[in-house]
Each structure stands twice: as C-alpha cells, then as structure tokens.
Write a structure and sequence with these properties.
The chain folds into two domains: about 1-175 and about 345-370, Rossmann fold; about 185-345, 3-Layer(aba) Sandwich (Rossmann fold). α1 (about 20-30) crosses α13 (about 345-370), α5 (about 130-135) crosses α6 (about 145-160) and α10 (about 280-290) packs across α12 (about 330-345). The protein contains 13 helices and 14 strands. About 45% of the residues lie in helices and about 15% in strands. It is elongated and about 65 Å long. The protein is of the alpha/beta class.
Length: about 375
C-alpha cells in the first residue's frame, strides 16, 4: 500500500501544532504496518535536518515555497494542483489523502488520474474548495463528531446546488494521544515554574493566539479568582501568546516541547478553554501524562475524554469550574480516569482505521466516479 498525504500551508513539517503532530504520529504508525508513506507540502527552513530524524518518511515530494500565505488564493490553488498532479502521476499511490482546506483542491488531480481521494477534515473553512472536495471525494473522514457536523453542512449545501447521486463514505476517525515523555529536565523546569508563581494552586494551559482558543477568557477567570482570594497561579503559553508576567501569572509566549511538557507537569489542573475546537490535542496530551484536565464543552476531544469535567467557555463558567475542582473534587481520581481514556487509543488504531477507509474508498471509487463527474 502506498499513500500520498498532503499537508500544505499548515504543513506536514511536524512543527508545534495540532495538524503537524497528527501527521507525524500517523506517519510512524502507517510505517509500522507496512504502508509506504509519501508527503507533499511546503518545505520550511531546517527541514533537511528534520527529515533525517524521521526515518519512517520514505521520501518527500515537495514545493520549496515557504511563504505561500503571501500569495493569492488562486496561485496557492494552482501550485497545489500542479505539484499534486505530478507527484501522484509519478508515484501512482493507492490513495491521496488531503488534510487541510488548502489541499482540498487536489481532488481535481485525483479525479483526473483516477486515484481514490480521501479528505480528512481537521477543521472546516467551508470554502469553495472544501465544498468541491466533500462532493467529489470517495471518502470524507473527520477527527470528531463536531467536524463531521461541518461535513454534513457542506454536503447539504452541495445537495442543494448540485446533488451528487453517490455521496462519499463518511467516517469519524479520532486521533490518539501524542506519546509525550517527561524526563528530568522537564520535571526540573516544572518545579521552577511553580516556584516562580509562588501560589498554592497552579492552573496550566497550552494554546495558540487565535480567536477561538479562549485563552483571554481563562486569563480573566484566573484574575477574578485571585481577586476573590484564591491562592491561584496561571502558567500559559503557545504560538502567538504574548510574553507577560504579573503576580501569580506567567505567559510564556511560544513554547518548545520541553516547556510545553513542563507546563503540564507544573499544573494541578490543565484547562482548555476554546470557544470552538473540532478536536483539541492538548487535553489528550496532558491526560496521557497523568494530569487532571477540564475542557470546554465546545471541544471534540470530549468524545474520547468522557470523564473530563467540562464547562461553558465563559469567564464565569471557567472560574466556577476551576474553583470547584481545586477545592471540592478529587483531582487524583479525575487524573486517573482521563489517563486511562487517553491511553486506551493508539496511533496504530488510527492507522488501521484510516487504512480500512482507503480500502473501502478503493472499492467504492468506480461507482462513485461514474456518477460524479468533475
């Protein structure tokens, strides 16, 4: 089995970020079951060194353009189509798998070359390319039921405009927990973080500076709880988070892997406050390390972490949940329950489910293509 996996502007480069983490672990798992994995995407600085570290990547077909985000949408789409077409024509993969809305347009190349196309939706933009992809793909996978709801919405739009006689196969394939390792360096850094806060309780958060992430709501909630007299500290960081410090609060800015793990270890409770999150790997990572987590009700990861306390993503909802969990609940019991759930699913499970979807898409393709013409 040979797969061509696309990850474009949020690429397969395995830098810090949900999609990169997903593809790195998925690539390793596919390799472990004998699947020849090829990747197509942007090449960032330092990729040659990183590629050498990732033995499971058989090879890389690539476009050496780092700044695609500065180009117009039509040029990005053209480059994706051209490079996907030539890579797929050369490799003749058993399936093409697109992993973000930039690469959805590659369904045209897959149809032209008569190769099964699977659109694995991690987040939805409901763009024209995505509408085309969900209509013409043999299969559409989603990382959660929340994401699948977006797929259903897009399919309802395409049915209204141009109803496909043969809809795609739909399947939810949840990610697994990234297998983080906490060593002596991470534990020492965690102790330093706790000492720098000087508070009885510590809440941690790893996130990004995006409108849906809710990190500002968590910051306001912690400040409110401190005003009420709760001896509470907050340590938070992630891509785009500003660096700042005030009594009991440390914002660390961008994080490397060791600091991210240290935040988890330093926390009595890891809080994930997103106002909308199709999945959310952070709570899964923290739970895997044995930490109690509290998660916004708007996050798909709750489909796996069923024991995790949840809250409405508002300042009041976050503050009341933190206070109740720290002062009234058995955090060790919560940590044990979510750890068992996080560790129950492996990337081998994800790879097997994806491979089965590829086989189903291959069997489905002749009937699907006969009815759905590009």
């Amino acid at each position: 089995m040979r797969l061509l996996i696309l990850g474009w502007e949020t690429p397969f480069v395995f830098t810090y970020g949900g999609l990169g983490t997903f593809l790195e672990h998925l690539g390793r798992a596919l390799d472990s079951i004998g699947v020849e994995t090829w990747f197509l995407g942007c090449i960032p600085e330092g990729w040659e060194r990183r590629r050498a570290e990732l033995g499971y990547v058989r090879s890389v077909a690539c476009c050496r353009v780092v700044d695609l985000g500065r180009r117009n949408v039509a040029e990005i789409a053209r480059q994706i189509l051209v490079h996907t077409y030539h890579a797929a024509k050369l490799l003749r993969p058993d399936a093409i798998i697109a992993n973000d809305y930039h690469t959805a347009v590659a369904v045209v190349a897959a149809n032209e070359l008569e190769i099964p196309f699977i659109y694995y939706l991690h987040t939805a933009s409901v763009s024209g390319a995505e509408l085309m992809a969900v209509r013409l793909a043999e299969a559409v996978a989603a990382n959660s039921k929340i994401s699948m709801d977006a797929v259903e919405t897009m399919l309802s739009i395409t049915r209204f405009v141009h109803p496909p006689p043969q809809p795609p196969i739909l399947r939810v394939i949840h990610p697994a927990a990234p297998q983080l390792f906490a060593g002596d360096e991470e534990r020492e850094l965690a102790e330093k973080l706790r000492r720098s806060l000087g508070t009885k309780y510590v809440v941690g958060c790893v996130t990004r500076n995006q409108p849906n992430k809710g990190w500002d709501l968590l910051l306001k909630a912690v400040r409110e709880l401190r005003r009420e007299g709760l001896d509470l500290g907050l340590v938070m960081g992630g891509r785009g988070i500003p660096r700042a410090e005030e009594p009991g609060i440390r914002l660390l800015g961008d994080l490397d892997e060791k600091t991210k793990i240290a935040i988890y270890l330093a926390s009595d409770l890891v809080v994930y406050p997103s106002t909308y999150e199709p999945f959310g790997l952070v709570p899964l990572e923290a739970a895997y390390l044995g930490k109690p987590v509290a998660v916004s009700k708007r996050c798909g990861v709750l489909e796996l972490l069923r024991s995790a306390p949840s809250f409405e993503p508002t300042v009041e909802g976050i503050a009341s949940t933190i206070k109740r969990l720290l002062l009234e609940e058995d955090l060790e019991k919560i940590a044990s329950a979510v750890a068992a759930e996080a560790r129950s699913r492996t990337w081998y499970d994800v790879a097997k489910e994806l491979l089965q979807l590829v086989k189903d898409a291959q069997a489905y393709m002749p009937r699907h293509r006969d009815e759905n013409i590009v």
